[in-house]
Hints:
Layout: H1 10-24, E1 44-49, E2 54-65, E3 70-76, E4 82-86, E5 112-118, E6 127-130, H2 136-146, H3 153-166, E7 170-172, H4 175-185, H5 201-204, H6 220-226, H7 230-238, H8 246-256, E8 261-264, H9 275-284, H10 289-292, E9 299-302, H11 306-318, E10 328-329, H12 337-341, E11 350-353, H13 355-364, E12 374-378, H14 380-386, H15 388-402, E13 413-418, H16 423-432, E14 437-440, H17 443-449, E15 453-458, H18 464-471, E16 480-486, H19 489-500, E17 505-509, H20 517-524, E18 533-539, H21 543-546, E19 553-556, H22 563-570, E20 594-599, H23 607-617, H24 623-638, H25 647-652, E21 691-699, E22 704-710, H26 716-730, E23 743-748, E24 751-759, E25 770-775, E26 781-785, E27 790-791, E28 804-808, E29 811-813, H27 822-832, E30 837-845, E31 848-859, E32 866-871, H28 872-878, E33 882-884, H29 888-896, E34 922-923, E35 927-932, E36 935-940, E37 946-952, E38 956-963, E39 966-973, E40 984-988, E41 991-997, E42 1017-1019, E43 1024-1027
Parallel strand pairs: 8-13, 8-14, 9-11, 9-12, 10-11, 12-13, 15-20, 16-18, 16-19, 17-18, 19-20, 28-31, 34-39
Antiparallel strand pairs: 1-2, 2-3, 3-4, 5-6, 5-7, 21-22, 21-30, 22-28, 23-24, 23-27, 24-25, 25-26, 29-33, 30-31, 31-32, 35-36, 35-43, 36-41, 37-38, 38-39, 40-41, 42-43
Helix pairs in contact: 6-7, 8-9, 13-15, 17-22
Amino acid sequence: xxPGIQPDSPEEYENLRVKMNLFYHEVDLxxxxxxxxxxxxxxxxxxxxLALKSWCRAVVESVFQGMVETxxxxxxxxxxxxxxxxxDDVRTPLEKFLQLPFRVRRFKLAGIRPMTxxxxxxxxxxxxxxxxxxxxxxxxxxxxxxxxxxxLCLFFSICVNHELVAKKFACFINDKSSVMxxxxxxxxxxxSLAWDIYSSPHQLxxxxxxxxxxxxxxxxxxxxxxxxxxxxxxxxxxxKYNGPNVAESYCWPAVARGFDTVLVSHSGDNPLSYIPxxxxxxxxxxxxxxxxARTGPTAVILCPGWEKVQTVLELLEDSxxxxxxxxxxxxxxxxQEEPKKFKIPRNCQLLVTTPFTMMRLLDAQCFLFLxxxxxxxDEADVLxxxxxxxxxxxxxxxxxxxxxxxxxxxxxxxxxxxxxxSAGIEALVREHMIYPSVxxxxxxxxxxYGRVHQRVQLCLDCDKISVLLGSLDFHPPKPQKTLxxxxxxxxxxxxxxxxxxxxxFTLKAHEDVTDQFDFVIDQWRKDISRGTQVILVxxxxxxxxxxxxxxxxVVHYGFPSSPKLFGSRLFCMSEHFRNxxxxxxxxxxxxxxxxxxxxSELNARHVCGVLRYLRRSGALLPPELLQFALGVQxxxxxxxxxxxxxxxxxxxxxxRDSTVCPDxxxxxxxxxxxxxPDSGTCxxxxxxxxxxxxxxxxxxxxxxxxxxIVSQKDDCYETLAAEMNAHYASERxxxxxxxxxxLYAIQExxxxxxxxxxxxxxxxxxxxxxxxxxxxxxxxxxEVKSHQLLQLPPQFQDLPGQAVELILCRAQPVDGEVDWNPxxxxxxxxxxxxxLHQARVVMSVGNTVWVDxxxxxxxxxxxxxxxNEYNVHxxxxxxxxxxxxxxHLELLKRVFQGDENTSTLQxxxxxxFITNTQISLIFHPQIKWFQRGELVTIYIxxxxxxxxxCEFHSDAVIYSGYVNDRHYYTKLExxxxxxxxxxxxxxxxxxxxxxxxxxxxxxWNDCCCGSGHLFLAEVGEEGCYVSSESDSxxx
Length: 1035
């Protein structure tokens, strides 16, 4: 009898067994740290069972001295067996191995007691009498009875009792017999199905001898409070900072000691990864007397954009440790006069800015940074991708400033923090750092640092074995150790059987053969000669236990399910990673480590991520992979039909990265049909539309607004507003029940607006609550009090919402920013909000209307003449934080008319595989060229292109790049010869510029000598070439 105990999931115990075997079989495991301090009875431990070939949890039942050494008699608490082990073979369990209850439980049968046969000496008869112990035959009978049965305690507690009583092995207990039996034998009444210590493993954690938990890291906050920087510790505690993590534990000491430091980690975009040690360093290092008389900050933090500048400055201002550093931020636009007027406060020692702003300050006032000692690159990988030219100039200036003779005793430090390794960071380490500390905690990024050669093999899943065998070199010229990694033990056996018939030295290791790990590693670590290859087939879970770091090749037979898993596989070759400190490393030499990835149709959803990583590694991409990725991305786009149009695509004409953007980049005619009668037609760009009156009411950004198009004839909204005012002047009924999606009215000053409730939170016990409402005639969304909502009669619900999204064309943020600076948005809002403007509608899709231009017109008093008070586009450019975007309308036209619906992922193609059939998908950029002496300068008129390539030949130049998911390619057949080795290209003002060195010092009449197949050019004004084969994207 009793409540019964259901058995735990067998899968959980199997997973526990696998994890224990992998941990205790780990090759580099420090056994001494896992031995118990004292071996005694009742100790919970882990021992190895030779019969089970597995590590098992156990409890020491007794300790005795053997002939040679101390031994322990242990009960395997998950199997029920008892074994004898040596004291040196006993291990302490980790806390995570004690989370599951022990499978072996002790029960007592209630209501019966054992019987035994008693034969008195003086009598010739025998009788059954109660006993304190069970007879061995009863034990054997019970074992046979329960063999192979599921232990359902409620059922068998009754059935077993009756069976044992029927077989005279036991008798039932009544009150009388219980008392008599207790007096005779001193037995206690049995407890019904009582749990013992095995059922409560959590209590074991309080016992001595449990696994010692790894002590926490030293209390860095207390240390800061005791030492020189208590404010930093208090600041971190106030921010609820729970670090430092592993990356910061290595980075902080290097930064605090003033060393050049590079950190690549998952937290690389968090300013707290470098701010605390930097502040400690700046507080302890005083300004050298030779620099005290100079101007400028001692430390500059470069951030990729105005948003990050504000974030970093807020962190610095929140920390009281910066009270004497006076941190300041500066953001300057393209106005040439503004940098000349700007003055850095004299007491400012810490400046936060962007590379573009610092470049403008250096151009205008190079003497502003004469005290600079510490240069911090926040998100360095992003800085180099967005502003490579500016970074180069800034670093050269920093090198010049700190290399003076009078600066010999001054500190000098560069800190670069990011989440990815890049070619720019590599150049930074090579050319500008002195004995740097390079810390990389992201293993897949460490593989890029180590220059692991990446190869991809496309195949069908059914052909993976044959492709695997074809990719292996069984007679390599150098000794090679190849690791083939699978995703399961069954897959390991399958691959091993296929490879062992071909390769002589083939090993295997997986979760079911952990007892062979020592043998496998011994064979792996043996020295091998030239022409020999050792192959080990294993699984993901065994990598840590095997501790392999010297593999020369990793074959990913099973596709890695995450970047972290992919990186842990690549780290098995870490001993062969290239080291930047080895300056004699030949760039052209083939890397010692290589990775082979088998990609099948089952891994289609990962192909875009794989392709991005392979591009960063510089791997040669097969055309089949590019076409495969193109099809996958196209399929993903087709699955986004119910998503809204990409906001970046609408605002600027392009998406930053359509492969990761969750929104739609294709037209859905059922959703995108124009909803306003005066907004034009869908899929049409018509520059002859008459001017419309537009009323911007909600300013979302500098060029995106919500408002109304005011009809030239009868304005339905004005009529509706007048009727609503008249209605609510005589009758005001509050909303009784507020429902999501319903229409209501709300009063603001003397105006009644229609609103649609978007979200109704749980009111709870609050008397008044707020709901999220959308003003359908203005376009803004905000929270309103639910008790302010009024019932809206049906006659006021017939007119559709009048709000439309207004987008001003041909304007985008300066410096390639993603979002507009709040300064220009605020200025535009103050200027245009609530005022009628004249605008020409050039395109309409759904509820979005594109206008160009948009002007405010004012009537001259006393005359019938109107003058343009201002042009909104010109006001944006005049702010200095906006630049012209001439391709905006043309890009929208191509996308919305379907020219790009079949080539969404054109940037995934590669110019190495261009064929004649693909020429129609290639666009030719506009170029301008100038010559001065022996130099020819060619300007490629593209804004912020990516994935650029430029090849120089003696008589031609080939350029390739991508802008807004479109591939631009041009081949210029020059009218004169050049010195290819001395020619170069760079980014200037977000545009590529090529500098060609003439072979002969003579003037060229033309840049190009003729027309080629891919580029047929005509000479325009000012040396401007425009393709005649296709439309140019430049005005």
